Amino acid sequence: MKEGTILTQKGEFGLEDLTAINRYTRRELTAGEVYAFPLVLCDNEIDRDGEAFTKGALEELAKLFLGKTGLFDHQHTTLHQTARIYHTQVMEHPERVTRCGETYCTLNAKAYLVRCQETEGLILSIDGGIRKEVSVSCKVAQKTCSICGKEAGSCSHQPGQEYGGRECCIRLEAPEDAYEWSFVAVPAQREAGVTKQLFQPAPTRLAGNTPQELIKGFGAKEEIALSAAQQGVLKEYLGRLEQSARLGEEYRLSLEKEVRRLAFLADPELDGALMEQLSKQLTTDQCRALCKVYRRRLEGKAKRQLSSRPGEEAGEQNRFFKI
């Protein structure tokens, strides 16, 4: 799952916390200038979407979420930035087992915000239990089936269904990035009662206005975006390619016919069906080369037929045609 909650216990706030917080500040803040609170970002239990982080994924997320900003409802603007995480830790809870049959683990964190007039209301709502649910936004590289281990969606197993007494879910592994965490209000996770969101980065806009420049960007792994003008350039380019391909196909068909025609002239006993099958397997260059071979052969044959027999005078050869 990708959800969590602010812990009700206050915990201890000491010098180590203040030192860790000041790693992210421009100047040294005092204990009276900051407000810190503990929270659970996510865990390895199956969520309502039938997904669950592995323990290894939680450990990687613990590194990635250090220093990440807390927002409101995943609104990615500086106006909605409220708090920042300064400490993370994966904790095991041996007294509890997940529905996957594993020891329950949580990704715990500590976050801080600066005490000022703008944050007074938020601090009060956190202390009063109003602001309690949080949701994380991250990117994972692997999603696998918990039953067979194959890539999610490539097998017949369905999340939420049981197979041999085991509940199927999608295992989230190999986190690549952690974007932010957010205060949310709409419950979706069974116990923490929070919503979740897997953040999708905005598509990369391609640079360039020529077909060659745009095509170079097609090798990128992330999604790409094209402007209306760039789409027009590619549409025109594809139209020209389509026309060229059509003309090329017509030229190739004419070459195949020419190969078969010349072959029959050179050797009338050739099997027509066999020659047609062979000509279709030739490349354009091979067709051109074979046409040259047959033309040279036919030219040699014609010269031999027209040449005089040795020792015979031309007049003697033509005597049969005289009247």
Descriptive key words:
323 residues, alpha+beta, two-stranded antiparallel sheet, 8 helices
Residue runs with pLDDT of under 50 for 5 or more positions: 187-201
| Overall pLDDT level | 80
Question: Could you tell me how far the N terminus lies from the C terminus, measured between alpha carbons in angstroms?
Answer: 109 Å
Strand order of the largest sheet: 1-2-6-5-4-10-7
Query: Rough shape?
Result: elongated
Instruction: Find the count of extended strands (DSSP E, 2+ residues).
Output: 12
Q: How would you sum up the major sheet?
A: 7 strands, mixed, barrel
| Backbone CA Rg | 38 Å
H/E element string?
Answer: EHEEHEEEHEEEEEHEHHHH
What percent of residues are in strands? 25-35%
**Helix fraction by DSSP (H/I, runs of at least 4):** 25-40%
Q: Given the helix and strand composition, which structural class is it? A: alpha+beta
Number of helices: 8
Assembly state (oligomeric): single chain
Topology:
Blueprint: E1 3-6, H1 15-21, E2 34-43, E3 51-53, H2 55-64, E4 69-72, E5 83-97, E6 103-114, H3 120-127, E7 133-145, E8 162-163, E9 166-167, E10 170-183, E11 204-205, H4 211-216, E12 224-225, H5 228-266, H6 272-280, H7 284-306, H8 314-317
Helix pairs in contact: 5-6, 5-7
